[in-house]
């Protein structure tokens, strides 16, 4: 039978980690052997053909991203880096933790194959500080790979060499932004960098660098081993592969599942998450983390893929949905998010550093009965200016405006209720 | 800074700390690239990073103390003030908020007598907010030390924290 859930095939119900022996017994490190038997150019072609898109939130085609890395003679002498982004801090996102804790070798195999394809000689896993268990498991897995000859000077006798390090971070959401991550890995404050130059050309210490999400990298060796057509056949829509989808909020069975890319939203919420908790109805949902626009009931039959959710006016983002129920105040909901983004601003540019705390303050005023009608105009102006790509140095601030602008569009009555002092939720509701 | 002076400063670090920092330096092109690793190593040994430790690390990495402090203060998990034996990281991001983390915070405050950012008088706990801990399906959650606690309620919180420390 062909493999339909490649990413979670080693994930057990009790979430016990898969060690080297169990991983190899289930076909582990065969993707690495398949890759090493081909040229890096051939591997890259398979990856391009597979239509794999980045799972970190933006959905950028991975093969295309990699094709900008200088190869062979076109690359000046020196290191080339591959970095795994395991910083997972987007509010409402809990998918990479599953992959890291349950199957660390899968990530490492994916990274070795990716590094080989890019001819990178040093790889880093940038992992958030709070993921202690995953950090330890990855370190053990790297040591086990050295013993087996999967990492080090002469990998499986091919002459290819790769060293891999785990960098445990020290907090701050902005570290997940790929150029801020590079600054942080260099030991600096995590301020994002201007693009161009793109990291592919000038990244870590000025060298060619690729940053990819955990889930993205976990797919790579499966694709090289089984081929682009197999990967494309996994998706239900134009988008290829499987996706880790998650649901949190007031549903009966919150969780994270690997499903075909393009699975309808309704099926994920009703079938996998078990529908709403008794006594709660769905009012809206953020499709993929705290920096995506709200969608509502009318969007439940849409396919969860990058293009479909994009056309509906939101983003699939990380694919982990957050449900807004009918007993939770939408104003409080977005205030929590905007206050979060204000706290996490790196402080580099003014619209974000000064604008987000202002938005959070206006929302706090509205929520706590100090709001005025004019506040809605202020919020609309903030959404327009802070939300415009290009007005800020990175995508954190525009991301912060996505839930706010869509809440104003879909739930205007929630703001009006607060302005007139009778929010049904905040007076005796859950919030 | 004279060499003798800088050696003097560095002597505030233990051999163990210096060895761990040097192991990090071995695989990067510039000494100061390990600034964050070095801060974390010292914090793992001492619980926090004092001015004295900071100056010692800076001297060892050939940086100025101010430059290193600019990095240290950027990161919320580098503690530049003493913290309790265990740090409570209470998630207050969206999925935990939906599931009532505000009430839990209030309950902890009542029980331990500390607000966010404060340390209990018996020095057992420091209470801090934290960004989504990637366990939103088990919301609300918190970490106590290195351990994650899921599906919290007011009763379980008190059990985990071991009852009242209010004088
Ligand atoms: C503020 C901000 C935070 C981000 N946090 C993460 C993160 O925690 N993990 C992640 O993989 N990508 C994160 N990203 C996206 C990265 O910048 C980058 O696009 C991604 O790691 C690329 O990987 P991919 O192509 O495999 O998706 C973040 C972006 C922004 C703007
Ligand atoms: S938008 Fe915010 S997080 Fe991004 S660079 Fe500007 S201040 Fe920093
Ligand atoms: S929101 Fe608390 S763990 Fe994700």
UniProtKB/TrEMBL annotation, chain A:
- What EC number(s) does this enzyme carry? 7.1.1.-
Q: Which reaction does it catalyse?
A: a quinone + NADH + 5 H(+)(in) = a quinol + NAD(+) + 4 H(+)(out)
Any GO molecular function: oxidoreductase activity
Record PROSITE patterns: COMPLEX1_51K_2
What this protein needs as a cofactor is: [4Fe-4S] cluster; FMN
**Domain NADH-ubiquinone oxidoreductase 51kDa subunit iron-sulphur binding, first and last residues per copy:** 331-376
Q: Identify the InterPro entries for this entry.
A: NADH-UbQ_OxRdtase_51kDa_CS, NADH-UbQ_OxRdtase_suF, Nuo51_FMN-bd, Nuo51_FMN-bd_sf, Nuop51_4Fe4S-bd, Nuop51_4Fe4S-bd_sf, Soluble_ligand-bd
Keywords of the record, alphabetical order, are: 4Fe-4S, Flavoprotein, FMN, Iron, Iron-sulfur, Metal-binding, NAD, Oxidoreductase, Quinone, Translocase
Q: Which Pfam families match?
A: Complex1_51K, NADH_4Fe-4S, SLBB
Root EC class: translocase
Name the family.
Answer: Belongs to the complex I 51 kDa subunit family.
Q: How does it assemble?
A: Composed of 13 different subunits. Subunits NuoCD, E, F, and G constitute the peripheral sector of the complex.
Could you tell me what this protein does?
NDH-1 shuttles electrons from NADH, via FMN and iron-sulfur (Fe-S) centers, to quinones in the respiratory chain.
**What protein am I looking at?**
NADH-quinone oxidoreductase subunit F
Give the organism, scientific name: uncultured marine bacterium 463
From TrEMBL, chain B:
Which InterPro entries does this chain map to?
NuoE-like (IPR002023), NuoE_dom (IPR042128), NuoE_N (IPR041921), Thioredoxin-like_sf (IPR036249)
CDD domains linked: TRX_Fd_NuoE (cd03064)
Where are its TM segments located?
none
Keywords annotated in UniProt: 2Fe-2S, Iron, Iron-sulfur, Metal-binding, Oxidoreductase
UniProt: [2Fe-2S] cluster binding residues: 91, 96, 132, 136
Top-level taxon of origin: Bacteria
EC code(s) of this entry: 1.6.99.5
Entry cofactor note text? Binds 1 [2Fe-2S] cluster.
Q: GO MF annotations for this entry?
A: 2 iron, 2 sulfur cluster binding; metal ion binding; NADH dehydrogenase activity
Report the top EC class in one word. Answer: oxidoreductase
Q: Needs which cofactor? A: [2Fe-2S] cluster
Q: Which NCBIfam families match?
A: PRK07539.1-2 (NF005722)
Q: Which family does this protein fall into?
A: Belongs to the complex I 24 kDa subunit family.
Annotated protein name in UniProt:
NADH-quinone oxidoreductase, E subunit
What is the native source organism of this protein?
uncultured marine bacterium 463
